Each structure stands twice: as structure tokens, then as C-alpha cells.
Amino acid sequence: MDGFTQGHMFYLLNGLLWTVVLSVCALLLGAIAGFVVMLARISRRRWLRRVALAYVQIVQGTPLLIQMFLMYFGLGVAGIEVPALAAASLAMMVYSSAYLGEIWRGSVLSIEKTQFEAAETLALTRWQTLVDVILPQAARIATPPTVGFTVQLVKNTSLASVVGFLELTRSAQVINNSLFQPFLVFGIAAVLYFALCYPLSLWSRTLERKLNAGRRQA
Predict the structure, then answer these.
(1) What structural domains does the chain harbor?
(2) pLDDT along the chain (218 residues), means of 10
(3) C-alpha to C-alpha distance for 97 and 157, rounded to whole angstroms
């Protein structure tokens, strides 16, 4: 611990705070965009399904790091100055929207077709069927994998360090450049990541057990 001071710890905690901020921004924006992707993927319009599928395949087929570079450096070359937080949030929004859209699409399609047929007999529109009948049931199925994906999203915020955003990993890099104690500095950063992600992992497993128990009882 030689050279590592209380100020360094506060610097890491500040980076952890910005990690949380970035994670929340990415999750909220990604959830909105992911909902749109999900609706497009289950649309009755074939062209819309194909466009959404192409979007998902492109995003899932390219590294998040490359997407981060494109949002920050690519837009900068095009003359659009984007702050590091905005660039990282946009990149992670694109990334998360593709995965959340697929998670939620699978949850919707897992609902029995009889639910759709019952809604049709009540003369509900497709939108009313989704909102009032299908989505409340799909939400229970989608919650555990969504929370699990959130854990991955939090850990992937570390890639924002490449565009200079001062989240936890970047804060650890700055401290290590002055102390030259990588095992200590990055070890503490790892503990902070674990403290942030482990409760989410436990919550995901708990939700999954409750869901499976509910299905068995049904």
C-alpha cells in the first residue's frame, strides 16, 4: 500500500460513480431502442423485420470497442464533436439495444399462441394484445436475462476508457501511471467492479429460480 493514499481511493470511487452513470444511461437508452427493435422484429411487415434483423446482426457481429471508436473518433473526423460520455453512451445504447431487443423478442415469442388467439376473440387490436396481454407475461420471463445482461453491460463500461472517459478502469490507469503498482491499483478496481456486479448477479439468479418455481406450480 506504499504510496496509495485516501485521495487515490476517492479518485477510484469517483470513477466508480461515473461507471454507474454510464451504465444507467446505456441501459435506459438501450431499453428504449431495444423496445423499438423488438417491435420491429415481431412486426407483420416483412421489410421491417428484415431491417431490424440486419441491424441486430451488424451490431452483434462487431466488437463494442469498434463501435466506441466509431462514435468518438469517427464522428470527430466527420466534424461532429462528441463528448466522451455522450460517445460512450451512444455506443453502448446501440450495443445494448440489439441484445435487449433479441432478449425481449424471445420472451414475447415464448408466450403461448393461445394467448394471442384469445385476445383476437375479444376483438383486441394487435397493440392492445401486446400491451394488455402479452407484455405483462413476457416481462416475467424477460426480467432474469435482462438483469444478467445488465451485469455484462456494467463490465463493458470499462471499454469507455479508450475514448478518455474517466470511469473506473480509466481512473485506475491514471493512478497506476503515477504509482506503478498495477496489482494493487487494478486489484482494488476489480474489487469495486465485483461489489457492483455481484448483487446484480445474485438478483438475476433469484429471479430465475422464482420464475422456474412459478412455472412448476403452474
Answers:
(1) 21-166 (1.10.3720.10)
(2) 84 95 95 95 93 96 93 86 91 96 92 81 81 85 89 93 91 92 94 93 80 56
(3) 15
